[in-house]
C-alpha cells in the first residue's frame, strides 16, 4: 500500500469518527436507557442496514467459503439464516420492542420471579459479555488474516489503529452513533466490493473463461445446493434445525439484533427493519463477494484441497490459509491508484461496524443488568459515563483474546456461528412459547452452555469430526436437560407469569395464563396466522438465495423460479403483516 491508499483508509476512519461523534449529545439524553436504545427512535431502514453491516464482520469470509466448499459454501450459513431471519421478523421483533427493556438479559427478571431470577440475569449478562469478547477476538483475527497480504500489520497494531477509532465513536455516540455509522460503512463495503468485482473479472479472461477454467479443475464447484461431498446431508439437517431456534442466538435473533428492535420507533419499524435486513443480508451484500469467491476458485488452491485431490493444478497458487484469498485476489489484480486503499477501507468498514455493535451491546449488559441494579438512583449523566467506561473495558479484554487465543479461521467460523450458542438456542422457544418453563431451566442453559461448547469442540476435538456430530450432541442434550429441569422444579408464580404475559403477549402454550391475564382485545395475529406468515417468509428467503447463487452458475431457469418465489411469497407476507 502506498501513501494514497493509506490516505483513503484514513478518510474512512475520519468519516466514521465524525458520524459517531455527531450523536454524542443525543446519546446521553435519557441516561443509560437512551444511550443503549438510541432513545427508541430508530427507523426501519436504519435497523435493516445496521444489522446487515453488523453481520458483515469481513468480506474475506464469504470468499473463503466459496474457495473451500465451492458455490454451495454459503449454504453453511444460508441453511439456518433463511429460517431464523423471517421467523424473527414475524414473531420476535415485535415482542422485543413491546417489552420496553434495554437488554435481552433484562427479560429474565420480567419472565421469572424471586431471587433466582436476579441471580440468573447477572450470570446471563456475564455469559453474553463473554460471547462479545470471544466474537471480537474472532473477527479481529479474521480481519488481520484477510488484509495480511496487503498490510504488514500485526493483530495488535490492527486493534490499535482500527479498533481505537471504533472505540472512540462507539463510546461517545452510543447506539445511535453505532447504527448511523453502520449505514455509512455498509455503503462503503458494498460499493468497494462491487467495483472490485467488475475490475477483476476482465483481467482474468472474462467470466466465461473463469467458469470454464473452474469446471476443468473442480467440476463439483458449481454444485449450487448441498448436500455435496464436502457438505453432507446430516450437516445440512443440523443447520436447518439450528435455524428454527436461532432466534435465541446472541449473534442472530437475540443480542445485537434484538437491541435494534428495542430501539425501534414502534413494532412495525422493528418488523420492517428485520425484513429489510433479510433481503440485504441474504442476497445483496453477498452478490459481489460470491463473485469474488468464484474468481478465487479459478486462481487458488488450498492445503485442504491438496489433501483431497492431490497436487496443485498448473498455474494455480497454493494458499497456506484460505482466509488469505481476498487479499491475494487484490495482489493478483492491477488496480487504479488508491483503489487498494478503497478495498482495505471496505474491509475495515465491515470489521468496524461489527466491532462497534459488539462493544455497545456487551457494555449494555454490564451496565443495565449488573451495575444499575446496584446503583438505581445514579444520575443519567453518571450512568452514561459509566457506560462509556464499560465499553472501553470490553474492548481491552477482547483485544487480549484476539492477540493470544484466536487461530484456525474455518474452525472458529463454525464455532462462533453455531457451536458456541447451540446449548442455549432452545431458550428462544421455551421462554416465550411455554408457560411451564422456569428460571431453573434458564440457569441450567446459562451455566452449562459455553463450557460444554468449548469442551466438546476444542478439547474433545469435535472440530475435526463431521459438523453434525458435535452440534447434534449439544442440541439434544440441551433440550433434554432444560425440559427435565423445568418439570422437576416448581413452576413460576401465577403473578409473575401474568405480568410477563401482559407485557409481552407471546403466542403458543399460554392458555392457563391467558385466561386470567388482564389483556384487552388486541389485533395480534393468532398462532396459526403466525405459522403461515413464517412459512411464507421462509419460502421467500429460500427463493432469494437460490436466485442469488443461480446467477453465478448461469442457471437462468433456476434463477427465474427463485426470483419469482422470492417476489411472490415475499409480497404476500408483507401484505399480510402490514
Topology readout:
Layout lengths: L2 H20 L1 H4 L3 H7 L6 H12 L4 H10 L5 H24 L8 H5 L3 H33 L7 H49 L3 H11 L15 H13 L9 H8 L4 H16 L4 H13 E3 H7 L7 E3 L5 H7 L7 H36 L5 H25 L4 H9 L9 H7 L5 H21 L7 H22 L5 H11 L6 H4 L12 H27 L2 H22 L1
Parallel strand pairs: 1-2
Helix pairs in contact: 1-9, 1-17, 3-9, 4-9, 4-12, 4-13, 4-17, 5-14, 6-11, 6-12, 6-13, 6-25, 8-17, 8-18, 8-19, 8-21, 9-14, 9-17, 9-18, 10-14, 11-22, 17-18, 21-22, 25-26
Nearest-angstrom radius of gyration?
23 Å
Poorly predicted segments: none
β-strand percent reads under 5%
Total number of strands: 2
The H-level CATH homologous superfamily, spelled out, is Sodium/glucose cotransporter
In short:
With 578 residues, this protein is an all-alpha fold. 73% of the residues lie in helices and 1% in strands.
Q: What labels describe this entry?
A:
578 residues, Sodium/glucose cotransporter, mainly alpha, two-stranded parallel ribbon
